[in-house]
Amino acid sequence: MRHSTNALAANQGDDVNHNDQNPSQAKSISEFDLHGQRPGSNTPPSNSTPQSSARRSSPRLSAEGLTVLLAMMCVVPAITIFGLWSYLPPVYEGQLDCGVQAQLLPPQDFYLLPYKERTAVTQGEIVVENRSDTDWTHINIQVNTFYQIYDVEVLRAGESRTYVLNRFISKTGARFDLTYNPLKAVRVYARRPKGDRATFYVDFMSLPHADPANPDPSDLDPSDPAVAAPNVEKSGGGPANPGAEI
């Protein structure tokens, strides 16, 4: 009986001590609001992890500042491009005084056959002639737009050079094959002594012939503007014929 009385008194004493501590704990908790900010303090509330003093003192971009920055990013490039467009002189691509001749091409009827019935064509070439009085460097020749070849050797005035068509390669590494691809167009780029880059283009599929049944270059009239134009092309005859020339 005495032991039970002592245990009851001890429990009551613990309750009294606990009640005595509650006012101090409540006071310490009341010194901070619900957001963790001390009353009267200028420190912003810490909603997540604590921030370093360097980050708190770093400048912040307001909404107005962000709007101005985005507007400048759009306006400044436009003004720069317009200024360069107005200040820089126009650039012209000159025309080469050039001649292009296709040789050893298969006849046009050859391409009417199905692919499986065609024999392999290993011949076929073009001859590029420098008809000007200046030398050409950095020569780039394109066949049917996608196949090209670079020539680092100088093509001097009055000289001509022969290029085999199966040496022309596309960007994907495919070689030009006359068995499946007729010669349609040739474009020649070259750099002249003044440093400008000039070009010459011939379209072999649109060249008018005096006699469509006999596409021989001797039938062409040099006084015809369509023949003399640099964007006109000629189709070659049989494999033994010299083919088309401009």
Question: Brief overview, please?
Answer:
This protein has 246 residues and is α+β, with helices and mostly antiparallel strands. It has helices at residues 2-30, 53-57, 63-87, 225-228; strands at 94-95, 98-103, 125-130, 137-143, 147-151, 160-164, 185-191, 197-203.
Walkthrough of the structure:
The protein is of the alpha+beta class and 246 residues long. The protein has 4 helices and 8 strands, in the order αααββββββββα. The chain has helices spanning 2-30, 53-57, 63-87, 225-228, and strands at residues 94-95, 98-103, 125-130, 137-143, 147-151, 160-164, 185-191, 197-203. The strands form 2 sheets. It has a 5-stranded mixed beta sheet with strand order 1-8-7-4-5, with no helix packed on it. The protein has a 3-stranded antiparallel beta sheet with strand order 2-3-6, with no helix packed on it. A hairpin with a 5-residue loop joins strand 7 and strand 8. The longest helix is centred in the first third of the chain and has 29 residues, at 2-30. The chain is elongated and about 80 Å long.
Which consecutive residue ranges, at least 5 long each, have pLDDT under 50? 26-36, 209-246
Q: What is the arithmetic mean of pLDDT?
A: 73
What kind of sheet is the major sheet?
Answer: 5 strands, mixed
Proportion of residues in extended strands: 15-25%
Instruction: Tell me the strand order in the biggest sheet.
Output: 1-8-7-4-5
From the helix content, strand content and strand pairing, which structural class follows? alpha+beta
